[in-house]
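Annex B.
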Amino acid sequence: MLTRNTAQDWITRWDRQQEGYLPDREERFTALIDAVEAGAGRPDPLVLDLGCGPGSLSARLLDRLPGATVVAVDADPLLLALGGAAHAGRPGLRFADLDLRRPGWAASLGLPREVDVAVSTTALHWLSAEGLRTMLAELTTVLRPGGLFLNGDHLAVGDVSPGLAKLERAVHDRATRRRFAGGMPEDWRQWWDAAAADPVLSGLRDERERRVAAADHHGSESLDLSIHVAALREAGFGEIGTLWQNGDNRLLCAIHA
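Class I SAM-dependent methyltransferase: predicted structure tokens.
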């Protein structure tokens, strides 16, 4: 049985391994939540967390904005189970098991009103360009006019500015080496291998593998900033720009027209 303490232990390990790829992860979380607080227009915003994983961003957002309502969406049964167990009963937080690539996901949430802000961190690069367009088209059906889309991720400019992209990556790599001069934490693959070996998570692991095998998924498919900007413009977002950046790690913001 997956207990709150066990789930929280796994999420703590998840956060640590994520920091191996994002030495300034907490700084980006802070900048994103600053933008929600400043741009939502109300103290009790309705927020969608897209590709939420175990709810690391959702929990931090509610720590800062306890009046918010966060609907956290993902299709990974193991990460959703960890988040649901660790945050069971937390006011303002609901997890939803939905595939963002499938039309209709937004309507199936049964939201009580229009969304003020949609957020995501280190998740949407897994979508193909087509999947990203599908997701954003769905999002605009529930995001209010003037609502924000905030996406924190590694988004490269190599397709248009290869020299700048090289420098951005070098800045990130140097920050990582400084942050982990004493040794790197376990990486993404090591975390998943450890989770797969835990008998408490075995059923969830099997379900995850079944879903991955059934999906047409090929790893990181949309790592270029231009892909995300083009998809946002196609979906009808007006102003689009970077609010925060360190190397190729950036917080992309778009305002729904």
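The chain is about 45% helix and 20% strand. The mean pLDDT is 95. Further annotation is deferred to the next reporting cycle.
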